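Sequence in, structure out.
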Amino acid sequence: MPKQIFIIEDDEQLSDAMCEVLTDAGYSVKVCDNFADITACLPSSGVDLILLDIYLNEYDGRQIISKLKENPTYADTPVVFVTVLNQQDLQEYQPAAVLTKSFGLHELVDTVQGVIGR
């Protein structure tokens, strides 16, 4: 069974590209489209990795990560931040990795493989 990745990203073109390249790399990918209630979008069985944009249009990814860490199913799920912020600004949230926009899609796959393997 392929590893499951959950993308929380408000840029539709970027999320589509991320989804396509990760699917081509052999991962199962779901994209969130309801930022108001992230937990309603998440599969109840958990996922292997979350890719989280920090600056969503109306939401702050740092608040989302705090909610995820309160949920026992997702408390230990690795999170890769997708952001324009400096990695040092995010260390308190203990991301598995940080992808700085505008990263290349090969860098995305390499980062995901480095965090959860194939």
